Predict the 3D structure of the following.
Amino acid sequence: MTQVPAYERNPRLTCLHTSVVDAGSRDGRAFAVLADTVLYPEGGGQPADCGTLEGVDVVDVQKVNGQIIHILTDPVDTGPVTVELDWQLRFDHMQQHTAQHLLTAIAADHFGWQTTAFHLGATVSDIELDAATIDPAQLQMLEDVVAAEIRAARPVTARRVSRVAYEKLEVRSRGLPAGHTGDVRLVEIDGIDLNTCGGTHCANTAELEAIKLLGTESLRGGTRVFYLSGERLRRRLGAEVARTAALRGVLGVSDDELIGGVESRLEQVKEASRTIRRLEDTLASLLAERFAARGEALLVEHLPGRGLPFLQRLARELEALDPTRAVFLTAGEGDEGFFLLSAGEGSAVDVPELGPRIAEVLEGKGGGKGRVFQGRVSRLSKRDEAAGLLR
């Protein structure tokens, strides 16, 4: 492909009749090279477009050694084809990418924060600014200035200039790629920014609809700012509204009372957990006394519906009552559950030797230290066989 590709000539073109000039398979994936394409290859922080090639899905587009490689779900033959663009995905990329240009320009010109990196994510995008910290008030100010420029509907245009002309212009750029030759592509937001970029962009800032700054995090001595723009923002807002409505229904409170309602429920859960813990401690003590009354040197018990922490409590209670006893406890429903083997100082049971053997019989894994061995198993139905090893 020697001419400027269709995705650059007309970023809003969604269908193109062209031809496959090369096709085959690389690394187990079908590919095609076209005479021209409306699909943008990944680059400059912007993800690749998706679309179809004669009905075959194009799942990735990469530029390799000057060629634009279309990665396909199925192979195609050389010859005439129609390539179609996933416009919804493309326009989303255009909104997020143009938002980055606007954010970068406003952050630099109004606050002195230079952009050091940009990431267009699948759900949230971000820019990295060379500001050590950005407080909430500054973040709101940045968002307000950006909103004013969106309302101004400033035109966004792209053009190519010679290297000589480029050197004479005041361009916001982190430098051209190593080995770059030929013309330089510039993207301009009228009266705001002139930047080197090869990506696709909105026709004007009004097409961004809105930009919401979601928050920040410190990173590499600077600050990463997360944002949403356009349709992404509307979808996110819709999801948040639905989530809030669901919470109102669960908690039975108004929007203004949601946080207090959640805090109240969490405190109730914590108190319930403390009560359960106290009851389980009491139950473990009562069971230990009942089991100890049997006077058995080896106690074998299965406790349906219990977990490993309860087995541990019970084993400690039993050892305290009689250090000459060994206990083999299991818990769980069906075949999956837990086991614990422990022996007091006066017991002859060799826990380090028998513990792994029991785990093997019960088809599980475990570990231990000293006179306790425990683990998770998948064959509780074999617990009688395991107990036989101890007896």
About this structure: The domain at 91-237 is CATH 3.30.980.10 (Threonyl-tRNA Synthetase; Chain A, domain 2).
